[in-house]
Amino acid sequence: MGSLGAILRHPSDFYPLMKLKMAASNAEKQIPPQPHWGFCYSMLHKVSRSFALVIQQLGTELRDAVCIFYLVLRALDTVEDDTSIPTDVKVPILKAFHQHVYDNEWHFSCGTKEYKVLMDQFHHVSTAFLELGKRYQEAIEEITKRMGAGMAKFICKEVETIDDYDEYCHYVAGLVGLGLSKLFHASGAEDLAPDSLSNSMGLFLQKTNIIRDYLEDINEIPKSRMFWPRQIWSNYVNKLEDLKYEENSEKAVQCLNDMVTNALTHVEDCLTYMSALRDPSIFRFCAIPQVMAIGTLALCYNNIEVFRGVVKMRRGLTAKIIDRTRTMADVYGAFYDFSCMLKSKVDKNDPNATKTLSRIEATQKSCRDAGLRNKRKSYILPSEPRYSFVQVLVLLIILAIFLAQFFASRSSNY
Ligand code: D61
Ligand code: MG
């Protein structure tokens, strides 16, 4: 849960945080009894708290398919991400991964911590996969095949141009969007979305991750991982790692802002994709990560901390987003709020200021034109009552007296 300090600074975080905590512990209690499904759902909670929560609220049949889809791709990604596997071993595994899913005996040990457990016990995922409906299996197999081939291609190739960047993000996240749209369609709950819109849903999430994780990826041992395209960073520094050095702070922030501006190109498509969804649980499943992404971009924009440590939304704000993202009106409202926050951070001396502002204004226009923004509390305006130190102290003393009396009266009853 959020720290006491954070809650005192944002008292309205308290209720959504409690609600989230209860939802998470309920979800963990609902682990299915069969060992393979039990393994899959407890693994899902261990490797991704955020996706686990949104997956958990889908209807049973679709939820099982999405859970397996997630674990199969997470296992594939564990192979991709393990920088200690030699290329000549890694590439054939990535390319054949879609076949391994049908083979209960297959396993390959790699990764660390919970990812290692997932790899070592992958037979549980295969067993569960084989119990899914044929249409779900086919969609998962096809996407795994295409993603594995794409990852293999980029093992030996760097992300040079913006086209390479879009292509890499298509393989690792855009394809997830295409696959999910197929699963939604197969469940009978949604029309089949156009591929280009599904792709944008993934690109927006992946680019946000790549921007936020700059430092973690560059510091990766034994070998740094680089996803920022040379076509962008070479306008600011000679080597991608130079962005992390203090003497390049100004260039680093300008480069970061360029990257955020690039990610904003996908917003329109994402709003169009979400506005076509009909099923409320599928809607929440798709919308919560998107709202978190625009919030993360707003936080990272013009923020040197991206090059110094981890920049993350506070837990309380995440909890509020999960609690308050239910309809398209909520999504337009949230995108509008975070666009305002972005706009307020644009420095007119930034080399891309005009481009950035025009993308932000386009987003604000889409949100306004939809005319759906309901009367809601803003995520960014300080609607919080501000408590002074003395006020907090007085409250704590009153609480202490109250508790002391309560316990005194209880013990005198005996
Ligand atoms: C609607 C709802 C969720 C969506 C969506 C549309 C479209 C795309 C995505 C989710 C995928 C977004 C991926 C963003 C996070 N990036 C990663 O996890 C990177 O790995 C990419 C390859 C494995 C993808 C596994 C995945 C992720 C989310 C899913 C899913 C499968 C299946 C169903 C639902 C959600 C990243 O991972 C490491 C890290 O972020 O630290 C990387 O290696 O680059
Ligand atoms: Mg990866």
TrEMBL record:
<dbReference type="InterPro" id="IPR033904">
    <property type="entry name" value="Trans_IPPS_HH"/>
</dbReference>
<dbReference type="Pfam" id="PF00494">
    <property type="entry name" value="SQS_PSY"/>
</dbReference>
<comment type="pathway">
    <text>Terpene metabolism; lanosterol biosynthesis; lanosterol from farnesyl diphosphate: step 1/3.</text>
</comment>
<keyword id="KW-1133">Transmembrane helix</keyword>
<dbReference type="InterPro" id="IPR019845">
    <property type="entry name" value="Squalene/phytoene_synthase_CS"/>
</dbReference>
<dbReference type="InterPro" id="IPR002060">
    <property type="entry name" value="Squ/phyt_synthse"/>
</dbReference>
<keyword id="KW-0812">Transmembrane</keyword>
<dbReference type="InterPro" id="IPR008949">
    <property type="entry name" value="Isoprenoid_synthase_dom_sf"/>
</dbReference>
<keyword id="KW-0472">Membrane</keyword>
<feature type="transmembrane region" description="Helical">
    <location>
        <begin position="387"/>
        <end position="408"/>
    </location>
</feature>
<dbReference type="InterPro" id="IPR006449">
    <property type="entry name" value="Squal_synth-like"/>
</dbReference>
<dbReference type="InterPro" id="IPR044844">
    <property type="entry name" value="Trans_IPPS_euk-type"/>
</dbReference>
<keyword id="KW-0808">Transferase</keyword>
<protein>
    <recommendedName>
        <fullName>Squalene synthase</fullName>
        <ecNumber>2.5.1.21</ecNumber>
    </recommendedName>
</protein>
<comment type="similarity">
    <text>Belongs to the phytoene/squalene synthase family.</text>
</comment>
<comment type="function">
    <text>Catalyzes the condensation of 2 farnesyl pyrophosphate (FPP) moieties to form squalene.</text>
</comment>
